[in-house]
Design brief:
The protein is α/β, with parallel strands linked by helices. The protein contains 4 helices and 5 strands; from the N terminus they run βαβαβαββα. The chain has a 5-stranded parallel sheet, sandwiched between helices.
């Protein structure tokens, strides 16, 4: 089985590295790129085969929610999971097309695998 190809998007370099490390340590997943803005994530998707995008909500330029709207409107859209420090009930992301929302503090291999299972069953 091919690994799930993941694009990591966060404007904080240290968190991008931490998310990428979790992805790489999770069986069946691999990082195919990283971006520090919503605009850069959209550009990278034009040249990178991606199955799953881990998208920070608060980004410079267009927000992660707006970038998710653009990405999920594509015919070949990957699944997008939003991440932030907000509690799950504090963020209204219902109309952007994201598969799920995970707080950054809860992100780990188990949650990564669970959201991919959810996305794969859609």
């Amino acid at each position: 089985m091919l690994p799930v190809r993941v694009l990591v998007v966060d404007d904080h370099e240290s968190y991008r590295y931490a998310m990428a490390a979790i992805v790489e340590e999770t069986d069946g997943f691999m990082v195919v790129g990283s971006a520090d803005s919503g605009e850069q994530s959209i550009e990278l998707l034009e040249r990178t085969l991606t199955d799953l995008v881990l998208m920070d909500v608060n980004l410079p330029g267009i927000t992660g929610i707006e970038a998710t709207r653009v990405i999920t409107a594509r015919a070949d859209a990957p699944a997008v999971v939003l991440l932030s420090t907000y509690d799950e009930g504090e963020l209204d992301h219902g109309d952007c097309g994201a598969t799920a929302y995970i707080t950054k503090s809860a992100f780990g291999p188990d949650r990564l695998a669970a959201v991919w299972a959810l996305a794969a069953n859609r």
